[in-house]
Fold:
Amino acid sequence: MEASAKASANIALAKYWGKADAKWNVPAVPSISLTLDQMVTETRVCFDPSLESDEVRLDGRRATTAEGARVVAMLDRIRREARFRLYAKVTSHNRFPTAAGLASSASGFAALAAAASTAAGLRHSPRRLSALARTSSASAARSIFGGFVELPAGRRGDAGLSARQLAPADYWDVRLVVALTEPGQKKVGSTEGMERSRKTSPYYQAWLEAAPKWARTIKRAIKKRDLDALGAAMEQSTLAFHCCAITSNPPILYWAPATIAALATVRDLRERGIAAWATMDAGPHVKALCQAGDAHHVRQALERTEGVTRTWIAAPGPDVEVRR
Ligand code: DP6
Structure:
């Protein structure tokens, strides 16, 4: 009753922000992502009759109460499905190029869903695993698959909603250049941030109406390998969800001064003829999407940007990998 799994983080090209159903964690808008190599979580789960409670260790330390509760909620769902009551020992490590507060719930919950369900003897299809991972964190549904991945919007009660692969990792040789700005954890987590936006931002409805259009444009651009069309829609999707966050009450401003500086760098690169496009998640770091051949140039420009502390280059990454 033991298994381990390795899952890669992903970057949303079309952003998910907002839930149609908080209980089942169903997204209100479609999202499209690129799974990334180098940013991997490895998780081992062992169900053990001698345990008297679940034991969760993350990166060599005991999980906090909040972290532990999200892990146990996933284990409970798996125990109900497998119809047994054994407790589990969970050990998880983030193998990221840096430890600067970049732990990813996407790779974390994708690896946990895959390792725990396999350890429990459940033989889930990738789609089923994706739906399971989604109940903990919607972006984790996308990390079950490598390459380019789509997670549709759902409706209330859509318990089985899952992501699907649009194209494998070797389909298109793009790179994501990650530029770290500020150290430390994000101030408002995405779960809380998007709920606050839904309840209080006057622009949330406009976001719900516009987001599917950007997702469609991005899907078409992936089909045609059209980086300019993809990049332009990705930047709009990013700025629009940040607009919802900024106009929430109380406001959520994820940006640091270096965020703006890095955005300007990416825009300047484009003005000099290099196709690079920026995106951000619920934090101050900037990530630039470009062709593989331009990645070193883009990285150098971001490295020289005031306030950027570290950079690295990520390539398209693989499906989740499970070992017994
Ligand atoms: C801004 O998947 O972390 O990164 O479902 O509440 O766990 P929960 O949220 P999460 O949100 C990710 C938000 C985002 C955009 C994206 O990845 O699509």
Remarks:
- Residues 204-224 form the longest helix (21 residues).
- The CA atoms of residues 56 and 197 lie 31 Å apart.
- The longest strand covers residues 31-47.
- The chain has two domains: 2-169, 174-314.
